[in-house]
Each structure stands twice: as C-alpha cells, then as structure tokens.
Amino acid sequence: IQFWNKNKSMEGLSAKSVVLNFACQLIVFLYLLDNETSWMILASSGVGVCIEFWKIGKAMHIE
C-alpha cells in the first residue's frame, strides 16, 4: 500500500494489469462467498478487493 500511496507517476505500470488483478480478486471473493467460507477469510479477501479497487483509481488518475 505504501508504494501505491506515495507513487505520483504511473510510468512503467500497466493500468490494464491493475484492472485484471482487481477482476481476479473479485472473482475469488465471490467464489469464497458462494462457498460459505468463514468470515475471517472473507474479510481478508474483501479488504484485498477494496485495495485493488483503490489501486485502479491511482493507476487511472481518478481523484
């Protein structure tokens, strides 16, 4: 998180890869939710999805 928070230039970073990573994290979260996984695992995965969503905003310069 520290890297993404301090990074002002997205030079060398692919916005497409950030979006793809978010999509993969979301699919895993929905799979875990569908399989009635424990809340601790769901919370951890949910936080990961939120962080990936935040990264999209940083990568796309949405502020």
From TrEMBL:
Signal peptide: none
A GO CC term assigned to this protein in UniProt: membrane
Keyword Glycoprotein appears in the UniProt entry: no
A Pfam family assignment: CLPTM1
Keyword Transmembrane included in the entry's annotation: yes
Membrane topology, record value: Multi-pass membrane protein
Cellular compartment(s): Membrane
InterPro entries named among the record's database cross-references: CLPTM1
Keyword field: Membrane, Transmembrane, Transmembrane helix
Family: Belongs to the CLPTM1 family.
Name this protein carries in UniProt: Uncharacterized protein
Species this protein is from: Nymphaea colorata (pocket water lily)
